[in-house]
């Protein structure tokens, strides 16, 4: 039985990924840039991993640049674009982006960031999007594919098409989408960020898809690796494990979404029935199959967290990197929630193998914690 319900923060390594990592570390640990035979073998496997990933994403292998994760991909990309675009260039984004997009946007494009409104169900206001796209004529659009807090899906294919029609580059942070929903059309976006540890790969490994292989976009200077896009010795073992993890979960995606989505919904209904006044954020929106974000009727979310943790259940109060700070939910801010509501938010995110008894065990534990907090 597993009490781990924080898969949007990180996931355990997929067994196939672990095996791939161990083999790569034992046999192909040489520097892929060196010139002897063993290094050439590592280089060859690295390039093979790039091809396999590009197949999964529906893009050319040369567009894939390996990085240390989505934070690096997002930040380095936005910094590189800021250096390349005119100094008065405006950027269009959503109001529910991850801090790894929001912070560099603020720093790199000061006073030049426009946000598309979120509707009360957390979805993107598409009327506002088309309006702002036409009025502000952004030089770049960056919008996530799926939200990390409440799981809301953004209509990224429509956004990509609208940007394409106006010749505006479009970047998407696909960190939460990858491994949960089909990825083979993501190559339609000009730029895509991803992170291995969100889908059963190792931490400290990710990628950025570029618009074109020969694009002069330097994420990190100081060496010729990654065709000059990102200097630094490639972490081949982790890259191999990342690609193996995505290959392992991809064929099961439809079935997983169906089975886990049903379990998640039954769990959420159980909690709402047992704890009157509980609200589900983004309930009517298209969401990731593994995520549910509650606003509990009473009691600080840190109390909920601590008591559930005592019972062996790991959940979150919002996005993992900001769960230590007060009122941190970006989604709740975007939909105009009060500070009091924000303190009552809980995020539950199941995984690929979360069993029905795990979900019902968490529901029972929440009802028990509710009774103990009310007592
Ligand atoms: N983007 C989103 C939507 C995320 O959920 C996260 C992690 O929570 C990140 C970016 C950062 O990913 P990484 O841990 O690979 O830096």
Average pLDDT level: 95
Question: What is the straight-line distance between the termini?
Answer: 28 Å
Low-confidence stretches: 320-324
Structural class designation: alpha/beta
Number of strands: 10
Strand content: 5-15%
N-to-C series of helices and strands: HHEHEHEHEHEEEHHEEHHHEH
- How does the major sheet shape up? 7 strands, mixed
Query: What does the radius of gyration come to?
Result: 21 Å
Shape: globular
Percent helix: 40-55%
Strand order of the largest sheet: 1-7-6-5-4-2-3
Structure, explained:
The chain has helices spanning 15-27, 37-57, 70-84, 99-108, 126-136, 156-165, 236-249, 253-274, 301-310, 330-334, 339-342, 356-374, and strands at residues 64-67, 91-94, 113-116, 140-142, 170-173, 191-195, 206-209, 279-281, 291-295, 345-349. By secondary structure, the protein is α/β, with parallel strands linked by helices. Bound molecules: pyridoxal-5'-phosphate. Pyridoxal-5'-phosphate (PLP) is lined by residues 69-71, 98, 100, 144, 148, 173, 175-176, 195, 206, 319-321.
